[in-house]
Amino acid sequence: MKRILLIIVTIGMISCGTSKTVRTSKKVIKGDWTLSSITYNQAGTYNTVLLNDASKACFEGSIWKFVPNNNTGIYTINDSSCSSGERYFVFTIQEVDATTGLYDFLLKPTNEKYKSDTNQGFRLKLSSLSETQMQWQQSVNVSGSPLTINMNFTK
Question: Whole-prediction pTM value?
């Protein structure tokens, strides 16, 4: 009975597949990117810790590598004043609206520090993607007001 259920679930997953737009995006996202800047949609000074890992200053200039054929990646923080080194993650691009080209991007760290909490993940909006530029957006609340964090990448 378990085998039959497994076969049915597998067939269901294969038949759904991913859209052509998402497959194209995975080809574009493949490779090495630099997180060149982090900006906010409102003026002010914010003490943000991104991905429950490091500050904005530590993330700016970090190198990101995406391997879409197995949905994994590594980002490396190089700033000597931060906890530097490689961090591993898995990611998923989920199509939201093919006409606007906007997506939800799910990033889940897989480092040792996250092993005790395997459900730790971060939902971001992949708001723009080209051969040389990419932007993620994350919405958070600051003192009850919405704030959008823009993470700008270059290839």
Answer: 0.75
Q: Please state, in angstroms and rounded to a whole number, the distance separating the CA atoms of residues 130 and 93.
A: 15
Q: Is residue 146 part of a domain?
A: yes
The residues facing 56 across adjacent strands are none
**Cα distances (angstroms) measured from residue 106 to each of 47, 51, 63, 89, 136:** 23, 11, 18, 10, 11
Q: Quote the CA–CA distance of 121 and 103 in Å, as a whole number.
A: 16
138-143 contacts at long range (C-beta below 8 A, 24 or more positions apart):
140/48, 142/46
The tally of CA atoms less than 13 A away on the side-chain side of residue 55 is 10
Look at residue 56 and tell me if it is in a domain.
yes
Residue 82 domain flag: yes
Tens digits of per-residue pLDDT, 132-146? 999 999 988 888 888
| C-alpha atoms less than 13 angstroms from C-alpha of 135 in its C-beta half-sphere | 13
If you average pLDDT over residues 13-27, what whole number do you get? 52
Question: The domain that contains 95 carries what CATH number?
Answer: 2.40.128.280
Who contacts 141 (Cβ-Cβ below 8 Å, separation ≥6)?
A: 147
Backbone angle region of 3, left / alpha / beta, with phi > 0 → left and psi within -120 to 50 → alpha: alpha
Q: How many domains is the chain partitioned into structurally?
A: 1
Residue range(s) defining the domain that contains residue 82:
18-154
